[in-house]
Amino acid sequence: MKLGVNHMVCPRCIEAVEGILNEIGIENPEVELGEVWLDRALSENELIRFQNRLQERGFELVMDRQTELINLVKKNLIQYLKVVEDDDQP
Fold it and tell me: What is the mean pLDDT of residues 37-44?
């Protein structure tokens, strides 16, 4: 499972996020700048604890890539429809 984490800018940020994961009992995370790879999906409780601890230390969890993609598609569709509508105007 991949999770995105905003505001990670240096190796100390990686250490901080690894520490948070260890605190909540998540084993074998792979942490890179802006990304956390886990062997399994987090339970709802683990996710909430992880998100809260991240926020306490100035980070932010990117909740869901699918939502990002949906928003991008919506934005592009709206722009396309505006262009089509403008072309239909005399």
Answer: 93
